[in-house]
Write a structure and sequence with these properties.
- The structure is a homodimer.
- Chain A has 8 helices and 5 strands, in the order H-E-E-H-H-H-E-H-E-H-E-H-H.
- Chain A is of the alpha/beta class.
- The first copy, chain A, has a single domain, classed as Cytidine Deaminase, domain 2.
- Chain A has a 5-stranded mixed sheet.
- The mean pLDDT of chain A is about 95.
- Chains A, B: One of its GO terms (cellular component) is cytoplasm.
Chain lengths: ~150, ~150
């Protein structure tokens, strides 16, 4: 497996081990990870720290010229908020672990010229399937549904 | 002036006084502010804590049924990221201080059924005009442009 998707999955597993939602993300610039993160709704009581947002936060302040050469890896199809951050910073390429358990704003991203690749990775799918069965209320809270 | 837009402007002024970007926001539920915030790019070195995002963060974890009855007040037209958070949590109504110095994802929000009201408030416009003249590089960083 691509080492960067492996790193994103490792972040998701770290989140799970902390009792959180198992979604992870890394941001890669010039073949190096500049930001990594995982969903922190449970751990930090945060409604905004999805995996992708946590990776952006941990990458810190970067110039537009850096963001425009980055690839973002995420274990799950990015929701509206995370897709909005991707559009704000004009990240050109997103590698998505899977979109079978949840599909975010992929059509919007594509229309705006973002390149998407969906791996349908069995480990990513299993992590989310197990989590949704175990904690449906927490999952619904995270995606803003009842 | 509406007391909630006044509170959002007060947040923007607080941000300015801290040496930050003067954009503020409050989230109102049943006629009470449940979250308030301002842009913290400078103060926290954060690329994700725009005014609206900081207000979401400070509102903490809320159920979908609460978000769907909220109004978000923001001193400036919301960017892609903040608009994405608004869509994720299905905030039905946004009151915008001004969209003369920057226009965000208003068309997308409208297409998705969000009600928008733009006040073109002179104080909001002045805050941003002064800031953009004083700190153009910081402003460009915040909106992901060169």
């Amino acid at each position: 497996m691509d080492k960067f998707m492996r790193a994103a999955i490792d972040e998701a597993i770290k989140g799970k081990e902390e009792g959180g939602i198992p979604i992870g993300s890394v941001i890669v610039y010039q073949n190096e990870i500049i930001g990594r993160g995982h969903n922190r709704r449970v751990q930090s009581g945060s409604p905004i720290l999805h995996g992708e947002m946590d990776a952006f936060e941990n990458a810190g302040r970067r110039s537009a010229s850096v963001y425009r050469q980055c690839t973002l890896y995420t274990t799950l199809s990015p929701c509206s908020m995370c897709s909005g951050a991707i559009l704000l910073y004009e990240i050109p390429k997103i590698i998505i672990g899977e979109n079978q358990t949840f599909i975010g704003e992929e059509q919007l991203l594509k229309r705006r010229g973002v390149e998407l690749e969906v791996l349908q990775d069995p480990e990513c799918i299993q992590l989310m399937q197990d989590f949704i069965i175990e904690s449906p209320e927490l999952w619904n809270e995270d995606i803003g549904t009842e």
